[in-house]
TrEMBL record:
Pfam families given in the database record: WHD_TBPIP (PF07106)
Family: Belongs to the HOP2 family.
InterPro entries: Hop2_WH_dom, WH-like_DNA-bd_sf, WH_DNA-bd_sf
Composition bias, Basic and acidic residues: 27-92
Protein name (Swiss-Prot/TrEMBL): TBPIP-domain-containing protein
Species of origin: Hyaloscypha variabilis (strain UAMH 11265 / GT02V1 / F)
UniProt-annotated stretches for the region Disordered: 1-92
Homologous-pairing protein 2 winged helix domain sequence ranges: 98-148
Amino acid sequence: MAPRKPKSTADDDASSTASELPPILKPKNEKAKVTKPKAEKAKTDKLKSDKPKAVKKEASEKKEVKSETGGKKADGDGKAGEKGKDGKEKVKAVTGDEAVEVMKRYLKEQNRPYSATEVSANLHGKVTKTVADKLLKEMEQSGVIMGKATKKDGGGQWVFWSLQDAADNLSPEQLSQMDEQITTMKATLPTLKSNQRTLTTKLSTLLSAPTTAALHTLISSLREENKAKAEKLRGLKEGEVKMVTRDEVSKVEKEVKEWAGKRKKRMDAFLSLENVLMQGPWTKSELWEKAGLEEDCYVPVPK
């Protein structure tokens, strides 16, 4: 083996100095990793994930309770007990064979074509539009009812109507009998209309007449009026009221005529004097104001 090279003194001094000096700490640029918040975050995430499950469970339980109560109401009287916003009871929708019977009976009663939308609307939602469209097409394919599309290729809107039973056709004798009934009814129609007008007039008269309560009130008021007039007549008969003789009446009338004539003469004289004075610088209002005159309140005496 080759002999080692001896260390220099300078290297020995540097190494000793480095060993004696304390180590210099360099700042760390990386942030310290915190493990605890991660654990807390995981816990919060777990709580959040568990909470919706509980809410969903409670919502499902409420839904089941609500459906059970709704079922009890519907089973109680055979109809849905809930009411809509307009206050009307909701119609319980039917499906299956019951819906088929309902629509079949309706088409037979109406005896005219309807679309699935019209059938559902006329039944007031007892059969939904989707169910009506599906079942009506199945009924048409099975021959229970008749149906036809508005377009030849089977597209467009479908209309359905009830089968026409041959047994419903009438014989010629029955048709002639119905014609006779129609003729008889047309002949009696004018008489019935006349009777209807007469009865309407009588009804209007009766309605305009006072009621029993109004008659009682009217009778009471007439009795009070009759009593007051009878009391007045009694006073006249017994001499409680002083009677005026014909001579006194004629004397008063004579005085009225006399003073009316004097008033007319004085009025003529006044008007003549007023016309003369108004030729001066005064107006009628100024003249009356200076003379202290007032409007004439004379009321003519009827003849």
